[in-house]
Design brief:
By secondary structure, the protein is an all-alpha fold. It contains 1 helix and no strands.
Amino acid sequence: MKIKSFATKVTGTVLLAVASVSAHAGTTGEAIDAAVTGGQSNYALVVTGLIGLGAIGFGIRAIMGIMKS
């Protein structure tokens, strides 16, 4: 009788653990997708900023060169 009770507890615990892991896997995948999307947005913003800084630097250097001559 004790073995049957123990087996029932173990089975219940295993089923609960499996359900918890599968539910956690879904939220983890969504979190990874959100992080990748956020990283891509940040990367695009940084690239745009660097191109803008380069253009501003080029323009200032051109203006300074014209003013010297």
